Amino acid sequence: MNCLEFRREKLADPRRLSREALTHMGACAACRGFAIEVNENEERIATALDVPVPEGLAERIILRRKTGARFSPRLWALAATVVLTFGFGFQQWKDAGSQEYARLAIEHVMHEPESFTSARLADPELFRRVMHTFGGEMQAPLGKVRYMKLCPVPEGTGWHIVFETENGKLATLILIPAKRMKADSEQARVGGWNAVARPGGQGFYAVITDSPETLGKVDELVRSRVRWRS
């Protein structure tokens, strides 16, 4: 197990580590320090979130901030805590300099299998606002939105969106802010998943599907139905 694999496992389930992860932590001072930071952060989060938090609070507050709507200081504090939790630790590989954006998008999807079986913030208007905020103007619907969530990405936090196309295929759209691609596109295939990443909006976006054929169709769908602002 290397440091990146350890940190992913630690962030995925801070309270339980595999035997391989424990062995690596015992031999790696940097990862021991990282684990201590994660544990301390978990304690702070548990203290801050000692009341029920409505589903999608962080996402909705971030979007409402753009329109000037007001929330109570208590809700702002809770939302800020949630957002900071998403980004914590993933800054460790922010400066890795990797250009493998499509591969990173696939790995993100592989770490969130619940996105294909859960319904979360499945609101077409909320999706339109997310796209608009990111820099994408919808010319026509992409399909039925099933899942949206703020998620950790190499630059902090981005949007993880799953939608069902008009022909019944599931596709994932990842919106990554801040990072600019040098190439016009980039493709990857990992573990049966296929992805294409392209520049767009505030950074770049990636489309991920379970087959090359579906990827081609969904990629074209996104390119024809979303106009990206530079």
Structural summary, described in words:
With 230 residues, this protein is α+β, with helices and mostly antiparallel strands. It folds into 3 domains: 1-47, no CATH class; 49-88, no CATH class; 97-228, no CATH class. The chain is built from 8 helices and 8 strands. The strands form 2 sheets. A 6-stranded antiparallel sheet has the order 2-3-4-7-6-5, with helices on both faces. Helix 4 (57-67) packs across helix 5. The radius of gyration is 18 Å and the shape is globular. The chain starts with a helix and ends with a strand. The model is unreliable at 71-78 and 80-98 (pLDDT under 50).
What labels describe this entry?
alpha+beta, 3 domains, 230 residues, globular
> Widest sheet: strand order?
2-3-4-7-6-5
The main β sheet shows up as:
6 strands, antiparallel
On the 0-100 scale, what is the average pLDDT? Answer: 78
Question: What is the strand content?
Answer: 15-25%
Rough shape? Answer: globular
Which residues sit in consecutive blocks of at least 5 with pLDDT less than 50?
Answer: 71-78, 80-98
Helical coverage, percent range: 40-55%
Number of domains: 3
Termini distance? 40 Å
Please identify the structural class as seen in this structure. alpha+beta
Annotation, overall tally of beta strands = 8
Q: How do the SSEs run, as a string of H and E?
A: HHHHHHHEEEEEEEHE
- Helical stretch tally: 8
